[in-house]
Amino acid sequence: MSYPYQIKSLEQYKAAYNKSVVDPEGFWGDIAGNFFWRKRWDKVLEWNFKDPSVKWFLGGKMNITENCLDRHLGSLGNKPAIIWEPNDPEEHHRILTYRELHTKVIQFANVLKNNGVKKGDRVCIYMGMVPELAIAVLACARIGAIHSVIFGGFSAQSIADRIMDASADFVITCDGAYRGNKEIPLKNVIDDALIQCRFVKKVIVLTRTRTPVSMIKGRDVWWEDEIKKVETMGNPDCPAEEMDSEDPLFILYTSGSTGKPKGVVHSCAGYMVYTNYTFVNTFQYTPGDIHFCTADIGWITGHSYIVYGPLSAGATTLLFEGVPTWPDAGRFWEIVDKYRVNVLYTAPTAIRSLMGFGLGPVHGKQLDSLKVLGTVGEPINEEAWHWYDENIGKGRCPIVDTWWQTETGGVLISNMAGVTPSKPSFATLPMPGIQPVLVDEKGEEILGNDVSGNLCIRFPWPSIIRTTYGDHERCRTNYFATYENMYFTGDGCYRDAEGNYRITGRVDDVLNVSGHRIGTAEVENAINMHAGVVESAVVGYPHEIKGQGIYCFVIYQGTHGDENLSRQDITQTVSRLIGPIAKPDKIQFVSGLPKTRSGKIMRRILRKIAEGELDQLGDTSTLLDPGVVDEIRAGRL
Ligand code: PRX
Hints:
- The protein is an alpha/beta fold.
- It has 19 helices and 30 strands.
- The N and C termini lie far apart (56 Å).
- Keywords: Acetylation, ATP-binding, Ligase, Nucleotide-binding.
- Residues 13-68 form the Acetyl-coenzyme A synthetase N-terminal domain.
């Protein structure tokens, strides 16, 4: 596999960037020409951000799995596609070559068909990090079914909400999942979710943990039994469904500033082209390299840089079932040495948490196979950047700080490893094709350098969000209505004197907790469901390891007097309704919330209190009851 579009020098980057702006259609058309198309596109791009309507490679026919699998069989058939490292280091790892992965995807695609799944159907996938998760994702894509992967840390209620929103008739899950010393009973969680989703026709259950599970006759089937059925039919092929470029490939739910998560929809061709392009360029992937992205496939990072980006590039992608701190905090480094990993892509929160264990777990590890390090998901503080650089990269490995979002499908702003300069805590420069703009509150563009503003993008790129599932208007109002003719990212940003971008964090009511996006309104809704809670307000505060922690101000008139017990109960409610990832870090009981005369909660003040900036509360004179601020300030946790 060669990548003629891989950029190798700063000059080439500048030339590519320039071409991508002057002639975007020519630029992306050339890159798309490197993929396998059943039918070439008629037109590269049609767009407006008003509706919004963005279409790439119009009239093209293709299937992403032919690009991720079939086209590699000739030259890479016996090369590893997926290396799987199990949770327990004592358990045997697995390696799937491209040929084996192809066979397994085809088998499972036939299982899906046998169970009634058709093109366009939505399939919810709730599994641990096992190779079958990637196989399930690819099998859906093979037959044109739209996958909606849900991260294992979400509760039954969250799953039910997502299954209902997408009207997913099919679910793929595991009996359970191993994560560190925990065993998570996934099928039981699904059963709880499905009490509300009677319309679900089939649940396919993979055996992983042998956790006892209930299997409902007519609805629930075992993955292994279904594979056997396919095998007894001989080894039938499963020709890839011919997809239109703009057919949806998947839905992935993410939090916004309103209560309900949105189903971000990505389409087939643009997503394929852009994730491949950014994979090859950001990480400077060289054939034969082992790429280890530590994210979960339940998030966009896993979709784009564990599954689709690497596989479409014929890369070897490492899939790790466990957690960085089990059996000890040297696990990542052990994996790097075990497989001689070349590219390590992880989150600042993981780096900070591992830093906390000191250098003991790093000692004795070679780490000499590493060539490139990457981070994603949240701003990386300089201390963590330098620790990563010195102790893991040994000063030899460029660090790529990749800024992007679920909605963007792939990396938008990042340095390219060893090709364009890095700068600690800066994502640096836009990828070719990406035109960032900083705007002020009024929507005026802020020109020049050494300036800050809200980050927007002025021109579409191939993997931009197409819609929010079932509610296009929501897509418009969330991303395309704040500033005219621009995609609004929701992030604040600083552009330095040289034009490097530094993402400073969300400017909306979205928290970033350990790299997980959580809407404050979602957490408030959950807290407000708790008996005795009158009202609540949730804000973020700086947290040493998580980046942001969840600080809740709660008016509570519950009956039992033990505050700590009440806190635990409220936490339990949040965990039940959203999932353990949204558990509050701090709950402060208050008698009132600072409100304007029109009844709006002044979050700015609460944020300052939570952040401990007690002398910077600003003007509180417009509050309905300024006295409440003193009380809250005095009771700060
Ligand atoms: O605030 C930005 C932050 O994560 C948000 C997107 O979250 P999500 O859709 O879950 O996707 C995460 C993985 C791509 C962004 O709006 N973010 C992501 N990457 C960075 C970042 N903040 C600073 N630096 C980054 N490299």
